[in-house]
Amino acid sequence: MADELEHAAGESARPTVELPAPTAAPMVLCLGLALAAAGLATNRSLSIVGGVVFAIGLGRWIACLLPGRGHLHEPVDESARPAPIVAQPERVKRLAAGMPGYRLRLPEQVHPISAGVKGGLVGGLVMPLPALTYGVLSGHGLWYPVNLLAGMALPGVGDMTVAELEKFNATLLVFAILTHVVVSLIAGLVYGVLMPTLPELPKPLAWGGLLMPLLWTGVSFSMLRLVNPIVSADISWPWFVVSQFLYGVVSAAVVLALHDRSPTVAGLKGGLIGGLVMPTPAILWSLSAHHGVWYPANLLAAMVSPGMAELPLKELEQFHADWLVIALAMHVVLSAAFGAAYGIVLPRLWTIPASLAWGGLVMPLLWMASSYGLMGVVNPALQQRVDWPWFVLSQFIFGVAAAMVVVRSEMVHIAPAGSGEE
Question: Which of 15, 58, 72, 411 sits 20 to 30 Å CA-CA off 420?
Answer without folding.
Answer: 411
